[in-house]
Amino acid sequence: MSLPRRQFLKGTAAASAGALVAGGLTPSRASGEPPARRAASATTPIIITSHENQTGQNAVEEAWSILADGGMALDAVERGANIIELDPEDMSVGMGGLPNDQGVIQLDASIMDGRTYNAGSVAALENTVHASSVARLVMERTDHVMIVGPAAREFADSFGIPEQDLMTDRTRQAFLRWREAHSENDDWGPPDHLITQGGEQGGPGSGAGAPSSPEGGADFTYGTTNVLAVDANGDVAGITTTSGLSWKINGRIGDSPIIGAGLYVDNDVGAAGATGRGEDVIKSCASFYIVMRMREGRSPQEACEDAIQLIVEKYRNVNPDFVPPEKFVAINKAGEFGCAWMGISGTPHMSVRNGDGLLVYEGTASLQPQG
Ligand code: GLY
Q1: Domain count of the chain?
Q2: 328 Cβ below 6 A of ligand 1
Q3: Hey, whose CA ends up nearest to atom 2 of ligand 1?
Q4: What is the pTM of this model?
């Protein structure tokens, strides 16, 4: 999701309240867009991703073949995450992810294996497209959970993972536009005497290939993807991988590599993952909270809505207008799934693949604090 940060901080709840979708599981709509919008029953194996776009659908479809062959959830989520990390058009994950305020792409990722109660993560990892696979190496080849910064890149080096420039032309143009637009109190941009009332002449982003979407301006983008799976053996695994908040302060680490925040897996229960403003997700330990709610008997859909509610209630006394932009996805061992967000723009979606086929599932948005 993408929005101007200061506009976002003022809140948009009142203006958008008409888009409220009542709580509970919203059935997918028939739209003639195969394979989306078909109902799917709760069944395992299952794999989901918070990415509902074509790349997300491709990712779960390809990863499904691992599960259909009796393979491990852990391998399936890595396959799915790797596909999304490779998409250069996606400016929130892996290749082509938006950089920090220094123009450097720093990736965060985590992985958790319910079968072994093991986890690994990397943060502020540079020049490495498959951050999720490096996180898996941390999990499987060390007795640690988290390796960060230049040491994470050195760790990848030690396994022979080649460095790769993740900057695409589209990403660079977006950064250059942001750098010139985000403040009037610096010297980025053309000389003052060349700026006319109608706008500057020929600035970055005015050329071919420049993004025309809000992503290319001074907006902040919270991207990220979660990939969660249950295999035929009933084992649960998950990955969260991201380039993080666009234009973040150099070295800022979000929720994605923090076990319990951006990702949590419990082999007795299921898994949950978060996208959106990582600071809210870290403070609320949201993925852990969702899984614990499922442990208490809540469905994945209800548990995701519970986490939204938890965060809303925390902010209500501080700033009632604040609209936290998180999206949560979850699955349980029975193959049920759900997703929810506050409703910055419409309703949230996720890609789901199980024995019934491929589904783009529509979750719920809740724009006003309830209760
Ligand atoms: N959820 C991604 C981030 O905040 O970095």
Answers
A1: 1
A2: no
A3: 244
A4: 0.86
